[in-house]
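Hello,

Our lab assistant flagged a job as stuck in the queue for most of the afternoon. It eventually completed. Since we weren't sure the result was trustworthy after the delay, we are filing this so someone can double-check. Below is the sequence as submitted and the structure that was eventually returned. Let us know if re-running is recommended.
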Amino acid sequence: MQKDDQMQREVSSLLSLPDGLEVISTTVADTALTIHIVTTAKSSLCPLCAYAATRVRSYYTRLVADVPCGGCQVQLILHVRKFRCETSDCPRRVFVERLAPFIKPWARMTSRLSETIQVIGLATCGELGARFAPHLGIQTSPTTILRRIMALPTCPPEHVSHLGIDDWSFRRGQKFGTILVDLETRKIIDLLPDRTTETSAAWMQAHPEIDIVSRDRGGEYAAAARMGAPQARQVADRFHLAQNLATRVEAFLAKRRAEICQVTQPAERPSDQSDEQAPPADDWRPAVEHEAQQVRIARQEERQDRYRQLQELHRQGLPKKEIARRMGMAARTVERWLLQGIPHSKPRRKRSSCFDPYAATAYELWKNGCQNSVQLWQALQTKGYRGSYRTVHRFVETLPDYSKRIQRTMKQCKEVPESLLQHFQAREAVWLFVRDPSDLDEKEQKEVAAICQASPTAGTMYALAQQFMRMIRQLEGERLHDWLDQVRASGIPELQGFVQSIEKDKAAVLAGLTLPHSNGLVEGKVNKVKLMKRMMFGRADFALLRQRVLHAL
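-- returned structure --
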């Protein structure tokens, strides 16, 4: 008897049951574990008058689900009591003893199981959570998971002094919301269903303690900050300032491409550069198998014969749909063949191979005299190649023809001089203008020098862009006024609009170039919201998304 009592106490301790509950028996059937539990407390408090009642009126049982144990579902059968309240003025005469917080009144599962389902829902949402839960030994439904998520309380933030605000796309290009981030605690504090000025201003009015509002260059949030938090200092995000500048620089370079490329001189070729270089792995294709070549030729002949047959039927006056029916083709294919002719087959895109990293090495060995496939394969094995001999042989079969093609190509390249800025594109050159000069390699520095030499106006643009980017990197906002004067004096039309936009929002821009606050943290939180939104396959409404974001793990 003592051993049984000790075993029951050990089971109670193993299940982490609260004081006042004791296990009397356990039953295992298939994958379910049933545990009978009784209450041992001598009294229970009345839920209305808090009277400690000791008089038991009756007994009854409750079936409650609990967290799984060892992969088995756990069901608790609780033998609880009903007490009689003896307080004369209490309206409750009979009450059931409370087992909270372990089990809430009228609950069909323990609080810890409910919290586990909540965590599953926050991590995976409804449908995915319902498919994932059985692997943990929990049987639930998507509706139950969503109900548990929506039951989580959402408390408004108590104190927000540094606020980051930005928009996020609920449906790209159609529906947008607003995200609010506490820049000090680095947490999302709220989501708003739209990005209108009135909604954001109303939220800020409820928090008069806001001192800093970090935002993008949009006018909606600027107006919202003026209306809802006039006491706060607005800070324009530095990333958006750099982005606005880059857009202007790109437009400038695109308009002057002809001027820049026309005066650039051919680039000098290094004297020690070899005329014959290793072939690129993307262009070095293995030799085509003889059988595959024969199949390809046969298919081309078949297509050519079908094309002749199609033309003959068309000359006889048959409609296109009838031609398609007789030849077993789609009507659109018949129409395309009649308009454009028979399409010629293109070579397939080269597939990646384990031989690609060793293509340059193999070519050098072959050029130095190792032209036997077996010897070349063995030499590559010493350098880490783990592919088959057949793969090496198929690539080596193409080398004589490939070498001749390289020689022809190099001869043509010598005849046509290469310009340093022959590949000039505005969308790529703009990053040479806005990046830190110390981050550019030697080739990029030469390109910048060539652009500035080709166009004096481009040199002025480069100097102004670097000055503004230096203000962004080093927070030198005190130089903004002088920079604006230089831009006006330069007469570059692409920068005049940028100056006008800064003048309209000069206080926020100056704060962005002076204070350390930025919207970089907010942009990262926007990516988090996008991830949660896509996990719900776009089928959830705003209320559920807000719950998941605010209670994210």
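-- support follow-up --
The delay was a queue issue, not a problem with the job. The result is valid. The chain has five domains: 2-109, 162-237+518-538, 240-266+422-512, 298-347, 352-416. The mean pLDDT is 83.
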